[in-house]
Amino acid sequence: MATFVYRALPVHYELYGKGDPVLLIHGLGCSGEDWALQIAALKSLAHLIVPDLPGCGSTPPPVGGYSIRAAATLLWALLDDLRVIRPNIVGFSMGGAIALEMALQRPARVARLALINSLGSYHGNWYKWLYARISAAMVRLLGMHDAAIISAAALFPKPSQRPLRERAVAEFTAVPAREYLQMANALEEWSVTQELNQLKSRILIIAAEHDHTPLSEKLSLAKRLHANIAVVRGSRHGTPFDASDATNACLIALLRDQPLPPSDRLICDATVGGQYLKTVTNGTPR
Predict the structure, then answer these.
(1) Partners of 50 in the beta sheet?
(2) In this predicted structure, what is the pLDDT of residue 86?
(3) Contact (Cβ atoms closer than 8 angstroms) between residue 238 and residue 269
(4) Of 34, 155, 260, 263, which is most buried by a Cβ count within 10 Å?
(5) Which residues neighbour 223 within 8 Å (Cβ) at sequence distance 6 or greater?
(6) d(CA 78, CA 73)
């Protein structure tokens, strides 16, 4: 694992493969390790940059608190240090918010942008407000471990997804409650809905059929951004985990400037649970 020091904060990241640069930004309560299934599929055709966000994985929390804009600025500093001029950026959930913010900070620099179960704002109506606050409320009431068990059961309810549930609980519990709540608050406060017309990237939205927030929100966002959208049937919020084949096929199509896979391929994986556990346990070779 490599380290980049940004304003005295050691930011940990991994590099895989060769080719066009692709930055993978994980979600809230996750770490860079959670991209294992995407790393395995993409490292043969791209140079993958996989950081742990502040307060996640091996990166300590920031001294001055959290904001989506600050996280985006930090990741641009990392890319500058790596001399990456024109990255492709993939963000999942909160990582999608950071990816959007990065693309707005330097619109001409981002070649392709992929947003997985992400929005341009988490306020504006009661449903999004509830989604942004419900996880934080569970953490306050129950603590990280019990909140993680409930969240993981909702994300991965199938018996075959037990390894995904167990991994989600372990990752979620590893984040201190204080840091998790600050990150959730930063996501709730963030919004770029008035700035989206500044984007210049080729954009792909991957949306789960059963995500926490309505599919109509992603369809509306895709229309506004003139983006391609792939709707993954049967998937819940953790689409990179429960539908890794569909996620990877869509990302490969984006990176190769090819059409999206047909709709009959945009479905949940049949055996992703065991596959994910094996990949994480064995590690992902560079």
Answers:
(1) 14
(2) 98
(3) no
(4) 34
(5) none
(6) 9
List the chain domain ranges.
2-282
Mean pLDDT by runs of 10 across the 286 residues of the chain is 96 97 96 96 97 96 94 98 98 97 98 97 73 81 94 94 94 92 92 95 98 92 97 97 97 98 95 56 47
- Token readout for 117 is 């179960």
- Residue 152, amino acid: A
Q: Does domain 2-282 have CATH number 3.40.50.1820?
A: yes
